[in-house]
Amino acid sequence: MPLASSELILNPDGSIYHLNLKPEDIAHTIITVGDQERVAKVTSYFDEVIFETQKREFKTQTGFYKGKKITVISTGIGIDNIDIVLNELDALVNIDLKTREIKKNHQKLTIVRIGTSGGIQPFVDLDKFVMSEAGVGFDGLLHYYKNKVTNDEATKALCNHLKVSPKKPLPYIVDADQTLIDHFLTESKVIPGYTGTNLGFYGPQGRTLRLELEDPDFIDQLVSFRYKNHCITNLEMETSATYGLAKLLGHKALSMNAIIANRATGEFSKDPKDSVDSLIRFTLDKLSKL
Ligand SMILES: O=P(O)(O)O[C@H]1O[C@H](CO)[C@@H](O)[C@H]1O
Ligand SMILES: O=c1cc[nH]c(=O)[nH]1
């Protein structure tokens, strides 16, 4: 059955609704970044850029880095945008946009996020990179899909540990792609950790400016959580849903995080741009050898 025009939405030129992309515009290796200005920072290291477009916060450039074809796309801030980006990228490779039918031969994408993040453990030093072994979702997005991709043992351990208001979405944990973990975990600068993904930057990450929190010790509870030899190292706003949707749709995903703040010590990076630039170069080098 062809997908209806209201479900698979295409622009008049045949490109997919929000991303403004056609299948031929993207590589199968994709870097996602939050900030649209980071896209050009990544592609400044490319040999050439062969395509670019932008709609809203979704800026895309495709080109070659050391002979490898890579697409870089900005997701903007937050989980709601990840729902759009992952579903539309998948549609570009796994749905025939002309017939509106799901293709028989599944195409796998490799998706690596280059993001910024705040450490919550004292040992997660500023300007280091956290490689997210798992995304710990406090966002609830995955609960809207029929899913069997969560790490149920780890999720159960977290739910037993946390004492938060039942009004909030149930947390979930999804592991990163193991082949990408093995490939990226080779440098002393890379800290493996569980990355908490929150629905917001302030209250949901335990920050108070003028408003009081409903669960003031939420961050302390995250800091003290242990599962096997893992702990929650850092917080940001995209990883859990990227991992969850990538797994559900049959893609590989990894999230790399430049640590620009440390919530345990109250510090902020003196040069966050340099920290992100260093992570960009590291990630490109790793992807070129994949
Ligand atoms: O730097 P990016 O990739 O946007 O990532 C982090 O920064 C934003 C918040 O400042 C959120 O998107 C968070 O996940
Ligand atoms: O503390 C931080 C830093 C960057 N991004 C976040 O979401 N949180």
Automatic annotation (TrEMBL):
Domain of life: Bacteria
CC annotations in GO: cytosol
Protein name, as recorded: Uridine phosphorylase
PANTHER family: FI09636P-RELATED, URIDINE PHOSPHORYLASE
Coiled coil: none
Organism from which the protein derives: Psychroflexus torquis (strain ATCC 700755 / CIP 106069 / ACAM 623)
Cited InterPro entries: Nucleoside_phosphorylase_d, Nucleoside_phosphorylase_sf
Domain Nucleoside phosphorylase, chain residue ranges per copy: 30-267
Classification of source organism: Bacteria, Pseudomonadati, Bacteroidota, Flavobacteriia, Flavobacteriales
GO MF entries: purine-nucleoside phosphorylase activity; uridine phosphorylase activity
CDD domains in UniProt: UP_TbUP-like (cd00436)
Top EC class, one word: transferase
Reaction equation(s) it catalyzes: uridine + phosphate = alpha-D-ribose 1-phosphate + uracil
Pfam families per UniProt: PNP_UDP_1
UniProt-listed GO biological process terms: purine nucleoside catabolic process
EC number from the UniProt entry: 2.4.2.3
